[in-house]
Write a structure and sequence with these properties.
It is a single chain. By secondary structure, the protein is of the alpha+beta class. It has two domains: about 5-175, no CATH class; about 180-290, no CATH class. Helices cover about 50% and strands about 15% of the residues. It has ten helices and eight strands. The longest helix has 29 residues, at about 210-240. The chain is elongated, with a radius of gyration of 27 Å.
Length: about 290
C-alpha cells in the first residue's frame, strides 16, 4: 500500500535560528541515510570518497526563505541562514527535499519526501474579514511522505525535537471558539459594566425621553462594548503571534511590552484600591467607581 504524504500543523511555537540550523543538519542526515538505502536498492555502488553529481544534486535539503520585501532565497549552506537587513522581516522558512529533487528529475516528486513550513506572517490586528471564532490562520506545519517507517519517524522526531510547541494556554488562545468563550467571560460582563458606568450620562441625556429611547441607548452602549472587546481580542492575537522567530524585531514585540506595562498598572491600581493606598488607590477608584 502506498503511504500518502501526511501533513501535521503546529500549535503555537517559538523558534530561534540556532534551533533551525540544528534541525536542518538532522534533516540532511536523514536524507543522506535515505540516499544510501535507495542506492543499495538500485544497485548503485560508489567507492569511498567518490561522488555522483546527479545524486548529490537530488539528495539535498533546500532552505527557502521569503522576506517581507517579497525577496526569496533558496540556500543550501547553513551560514546563509541569518536575519535579513534591518527594515525587512523573514516571512516564511521552508525546509524541503522536494525542490532539489524536482529540479534534477524534471519535475518528479521524490517518493520519500518532507517539507517543514514556518510562517511568521501575522493577520492585520483590525481585519474585520477574519472569523475570530476560528483558529488563527497559519499554515505552519510539516509534511512527510514515504513508506519507510524509519524515514517517517526520523523526520518527525527531528522536527519535534527542535520546534517545540509552547504551553497549552498560549496555543489554546489561538484555538477555535476561544473568542466565544472570552465573550461570555469578559465581553458580556464588560458590556454590562459599561452600561452601569454610563448610566448617569444616559439619565442626564435621555432622562425625560420614552423608555424605548433609553433602552436603545443601553443597547447601543452594549454593542459598542462588544465591538471594543472584538478589537481588543483581535489586537491581542496579533501582539502575541502563534508562530514567532526569536531575534526578529517585529512591531508586535514592542506592543507586548506596552501591554505588559498597562496590565501591571491596572492590576496595581485594583490592588491599591482594595488596600486603600492613597496615591495609586485614587487612580483605581476613578477607573472602577463612579
Amino acid at each position: 500500500m502506498v503511504a500518502l504524504p501526511q501533513t501535521t500543523r503546529f500549535g503555537s511555537v517559538k523558534v530561534t535560528l540556532g534551533s533551525l540550523i540544528l534541525l536542518w543538519r538532522e534533516l540532511i542526515s536523514e536524507v543522506k541515510e535515505q540516499r544510501k538505502i535507495e542506492e543499495h536498492n538500485a544497485k548503485v555502488h560508489l567507492a569511498d570518497g567518490e561522488t555522483h553529481d546527479g545524486l548529490d544534486a537530488c539528495f539535498r535539503v533546500a532552505c527557502v526563505i521569503s522576506r517581507s520585501d517579497n525577496h526569496r532565497d533558496v540556500i543550501y549552506a547553513e551560514d546563509e541562514l541569518v536575519l535579513p537587513p534591518e527594515g525587512t522581516l523573514i516571512s516564511t522558512i521552508i525546509f524541503t527535499n522536494i525542490l532539489p529533487y524536482k529540479e534534477v528529475m524534471g519535475g518528479a516528486d521524490p517518493y520519500h519526501q518532507f517539507e517543514v513550513l514556518l510562517d511568521f506572517t501575522q493577520p492585520r490586528p483590525l481585519d474585520s474579514s477574519i472569523q475570530l471564532s476560528e483558529p488563527t490562520p497559519n499554515p505552519s506545519g510539516f509534511l512527510i511522505g514515504g513508506d519507510r517507517k524509519g524515514w517517517r519517524a526520523g523526520i518527525e522526531s527531528a522536527v519535534r525535537r527542535h520546534i517545540k510547541e509552547r504551553n497549552r494556554l498560549w496555543s489554546g488562545f489561538h484555538g477555535q471558539f476561544v473568542y466565544d468563550l472570552f465573550l461570555l467571560l469578559l465581553g458580556m460582563p464588560f458590556a454590562l459594566y459599561a452600561c452601569w458606568r454610563l448610566a448617569p450620562l444616559v439619565d442626564r441625556l435621555f432622562g425625560g425621553s420614552n423608555s424605548v429611547v433609553i433602552g436603545g441607548a443601553y443597547v447601543y452602549i452594549g454593542f459598542c462594548s462588544i465591538w471594543i472587546y472584538r478589537l481588543v481580542f483581535s489586537y491581542a492575537r496579533w501582539a502575541f503571534p502563534k508562530v514567532e522567530l526569536v531575534g526578529q524585531s517585529s512591531a508586535s514585540k514592542i506592543h507586548r511590552g506596552v501591554i505588559s506595562i498597562t496590565l501591571a498598572f491596572i492590576c496595581t491600581s485594583v490592588l491599591a484600591n482594595a488596600l486603600d493606598w492613597p496615591l495609586i488607590g485614587s487612580v483605581g477608584r476613578i477607573l472602577f467607581t463612579r
